[in-house]
Amino acid sequence: MRRPARAAEALLVAALLVGGAACGSRLPESDFERRGTAPGPARGAPVRVGIITSATSPVGGAAFTGPRDGAKAYFDRLNARGGIQGREVEVRTCDDGGSGVGNNDCVRELVEEQQVVALVATAALDYAGASRVSRARVPDIGGQPIGSAYDTYPHLYGIYGSLAPRKGEPGWDGELYGGTEVYRYFKREHGARTAAVVSYNQAASAAYARLVTRGLKAEGYKVVTEQVDFALPNFRAAAADLKEQGADLVFDAMDTHGNARLCEAMDEVGAEVTAKVTNVQNWTSAVGEDYEDAPRCRNALWATGSSRNYEDTKHPAVREFRAAMKGKTLSQWQLEGWAAAMWFTDAAKACLSGESEVTRACVDGYMNRNEPYSARGLLLPVTFEQRSEPPAHRRTCLSVARWRDGKGWVTQGGEMAENCFDVPQLAYQP
Fold first, then answer.
1. Containing structural domain, residue 270
2. How far is Cα 162 from Cα 427, in angstroms, rounded to an integer?
3. Cα–Cα distance between 223 and 249 in angstroms, integer?
4. Disulfide engineering: 351 pairs with which of 3, 61, 69, 362, CB 3.0-4.6 Å?
């Protein structure tokens, strides 16, 4: 189960920025009829996995590469230390170009031609091939829920888990559910009472803004809505109004460029807020550059998520991740890709220790154990259930960090596994 601020945000990226991306498939259904029959690798042979990434999507070259880079760094480190019980992990990557056609081509290449045991750390703008992966019974481990696929199909295991039935329809009767814990956090911990939601006059942006507004109102906030023109946005007017309305928090339903321009306008008009709340995709070490013209707003940036802050160097698993990244620009999505690779590795080790082989069926069985997984404390415990009915309330935890110049992302709210709230679950359509 994911909160609205996670799932719908991802859907917004797809709809808002690349509404004209190609979709569909050039592949006949018969190409995927040999379901789950791929043999396991011969003993001592490499274990082959695939990573599908929208590396050259219309959103931008670096928008979706974090999970891939984190996963590859993990496997490189693993192989340098002897692999999985002496067996190297062979990583095959595929760039789907951010299109549905390209995604189906990548699925065919990796699943059918390369015969990968599993997909790992998928980050696809248009996961058009998801149903085909599921029909082939290929476990897809730790993917980013940029669409609703991970709440729709069996054998797909998103990085944040799911409670949905996953029988071919999103969520429950076409509706997903998410909690209001982000809004509860700022209300309880920082006394926030008034929130501004800024969106474009564009369908996907406006829909996401309505969802955020619903969640805020459910938590008792006064909500100020600001809408700017998609083609000729007047961010200064929106910033001036949210200042006049006394907003404590600012949420946006815009792309990264618009978000940065809004911050610049807030600095220009002197709008100071408790938090300018962003999401896990923007939780990167590049904030200083991306928001270089908005120093006050930049230092009011907060991010929330479901994984441990990559700046938390007191934690041994974080230290291992950072050492393997070798000084590269860091991001939370890289850490989550690293966790996804660890997840697959643990599954493969379990298969081999049980005197079995690393097959698709064995790895899938490990993922279906219905036991929480935390990747050595890098993730909030992830579960996969198949509840027939969605819960009305749920205890949900979150990781919180705030950007500080000279320090980077500073963890807030203490240990993430204890930063929890019992909140209502709101329905929305993907």
1. 180-310+393-428
2. 14
3. 10
4. 362
